[in-house]
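haha ok so turns out i had the wrong file open the whole time. this is the CORRECT one, sorry everyone. sequence first:
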Amino acid sequence: MSVVTIAREGEIAVVAVNNPPVNALGQMLRQGLWDAVDALDADPSVRAVVLICEGRTFIAGADVTEFGKPPVPPHLPDLVDCIEGAAKPWVAAIHGSALGGGFEIAMGCRFRIALDGASVGLPEVGLGIVPGASGTVRTPRLAGVEAAVELVTSGKPVKAAKAAALGLVDAVITGDLRTEAISFARAALERPLPLPISRRPVEVPEPEFWERQEKAISKRARGEAAPLRALACLRKAVEADFSDAMAFERATFLELRSSEQAAALRHVFFAERAAGRPSHLAAAEPLPIRLAGVVGGGTMGAGIAVALSDAGLPVVLVERDGEAVEKGLSNIRNVYDGAVKRGRMTPDTAAERLSRVTGTTDYAALADADLVIEAVFEEIGVKRAVFAELGRICRPDAVLATNTSYLDPRLIAEGLPNPERFIGLHFFSPANVMKLLEIVPVPETAPAVVATGFALGRMLGKIPVQAGICEGFIGNRILKRYRASAEALVRLGVAIEAIDAAMRAYGFAMGPFEAQDLGGLDIAFLQREGARAAGQDVPETLGDILVRAGRKGQKTGGGWYDYAPGDRTPQPSTVVTDLLSSQINGKSAMCAEKIAECLVGEMAEEGAAILSEGVARQAFDIDLVEIHGYGFPRWRGGPMFATRSK
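then structure:
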């Protein structure tokens, strides 16, 4: 079957693309569109052409199976030029997503219309490259420089209504796309045609504009190359003629395509694609989830309830007493109020999602739940008591999950009836924002229940990763090694602020000590104290010394750093220097690159141990955990990728 077919509706030709699953721009599709231009230009009965796609989306971008392979003609830039230079005007009829090369194809058309639920974008910076087929050159001519900078350097798509407001599409429709596109094309023939985008003028911004954008993007990118290179392409598009700007864009694209950052981002792209549907669960059918319960309405429980409600699920929140129920519902309400205040959600949407959550003290309200997630205090006795109630009340086939971060799920589930339906689902705080979900089965967990965990991750828009049972699972185990290694450098005389600065330079938003101050040093301290109380031999850390001195982080005005009242800016602390002086041997002037190399190497070594023990199934799972749960710079690919043998 051909991936491109042509039908005729009177004087309008309809070119239909059918290259499932996402109509990717492989060589056969490019050739088919090229041939369609030639055929329709030669047909005197055709006055205009509608380009439309079958399936769930418009052309959603490049064919990922061609990544890393030599390009085969017709090349995409030539195809876009070919469509733009066609003797008959083309109308792109967009549904689903027109992304990357798909949107560049649409910009080669004389007109673009979109269904109201569609989106358009140029996400190439997310793969470490820039658009390579006129995205940086045509976009400012179509929508202006400011809109082009936001679209291209962020890589974030925009919905149809915003695309229309920016001038990226000519009309937004709600009816039948094919019918409306044909009508639009007929009407367009009755008016003077607009200039092809390549011939449209572009307004030159004031000189300070580029400097402002460069500063803002540098801060956001934190070492990622592609956003700034995309900005340079956009500037060239404004300051040079079309052909020179195209040559500059293409050269930049080809240079970045072979870069280490692009290789890392491709690695993450493919890892994320594989994460949601792991091959070892291909034969397992997930159980349906229609009603969810959450036990515990604190920060974590409230975030989980919000994530479930955001996915369209009704949620029952159970707490120990009426006051705690009200507090839990208030925590949820505060999340939605904040989203409205920041303009991320309308008041009506927030009210609708809040209405899906009901609070109660009665476990009987969970009798019909398909899934219940426990998110109470991290103490084994408290959690066991919760599961005793759930085992008594819930259906035998209901999935029962614990959100523990450190405790052994096997101990939590002791005595639970039908243990095959029990699983660990480790969310990260804030649970409605963080994308990582560690899925931790116990030996009795049924494959269908594990598959249900992955299905839940997809439903919530998260990156699910299966982890085996050990202290801290994958992420917190590596975090413990990372922090211990950072403390080891301090003991050798490397300055705390130098370590944090080195990891920021590597691409982290915060260094290890700044991050501990933000989250609170007492959290890990209490976990260590609990292990000591249980008879485990846990060496004293430098953080323990600080906590015992009352320094728990920003919330107490001091942790590894000092903080002025109302100011979160970390300041080096003479108090910390005095407290730790007996633990520090000498003074080291290790450079930033060596500090980062050391700490990332320690993370990777722990990852290798995790892999060899079977706690992680594959190396890229470890990379995904670190990127989505712990802020490892995406463009580095994760610790396992970053330290692989080149």
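DSSP finds 26 helices and 17 strands in the chain.
again sry for the mixup
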